[in-house]
């Protein structure tokens, strides 16, 4: 049996992040670590080590689906693995992220703060119980918007976990697609080692039933 490493428990960090955001929305800023670290590893290291070893969300989905048997463990539809869907979903996700940044800019320039978390880009959840009066309004606005992005991706991951293989989210995760593209640009022909067809790609290949 393989000896557990500290990196095997990063799913706890993912859970803590979600719970902390429920009680104080400003903790949503910590999610920038999940956003920036994979990009830095891909840009400066030329690998998808984050997806392969340090992704707390992937670990959490694996734990829920495999250990707790919450997944149907069915192969995901082929379109989830297609280039057009993965890059199309990345473009859509980044567009929504850009709109969130624009909302933050509007608050920075004087627009009123909106204390809502948008789930699945459509459902606005009231979040008035938190106090963000001690920070600049734009800081609070970014926190509300970014937590909505993180919560939305978590819900999508949970849905595909239940319907398909536990880590089916890894197949079309925007961050995974983005870091794969960076590795291709950085490493050229060596990109296959880091691409989604690699053996270490966040468990997506085996878990998604390829």
TrEMBL record:
Assigned keywords, A-Z: Membrane, Transmembrane, Transmembrane helix
Record-annotated membrane-spanning stretches: 12-44, 84-105, 142-164
One Pfam family in the UniProt entry: Fer4_5
Domain 4Fe-4S ferredoxin-type: start-end pairs: 27-69, 149-190
InterPro entries, alphabetized: 4Fe4S_Fe-S-bd
Protein name: 4Fe-4S ferredoxin-type domain-containing protein
């Amino acid at each position: 049996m393989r000896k557990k490493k500290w990196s095997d428990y990063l799913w706890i960090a993912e859970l803590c992040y979600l719970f902390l955001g429920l009680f104080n929305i400003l903790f949503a800023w910590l999610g920038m670590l999940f956003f920036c670290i994979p990009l830095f590893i891909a840009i400066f290291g030329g690998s998808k080590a984050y997806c392969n070893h340090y992704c707390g969300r992937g670990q959490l989905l694996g734990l829920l689906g495999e250990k707790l048997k919450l997944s149907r463990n069915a192969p995901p539809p082929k379109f989830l693995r297609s280039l057009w869907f993965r890059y199309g979903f990345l473009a859509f996700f980044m567009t929504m992220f850009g709109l969130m940044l624009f909302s933050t800019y509007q608050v920075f320039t004087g627009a009123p703060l909106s204390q809502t978390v948008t789930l699945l880009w459509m459902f606005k959840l009231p979040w008035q119980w938190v106090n963000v009066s001690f920070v600049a309004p734009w800081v609070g606005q970014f926190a509300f918007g970014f937590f909505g992005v993180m919560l939305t991706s978590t819900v999508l991951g949970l849905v595909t976990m239940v319907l398909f293989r536990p880590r089916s989210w890894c197949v079309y995760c925007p961050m995974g697609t983005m870091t794969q593209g960076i590795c291709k640009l950085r490493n050229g022909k060596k990109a296959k080692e880091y691409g989604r067809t690699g053996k270490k790609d966040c468990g997506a290949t085996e878990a998604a039933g390829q």
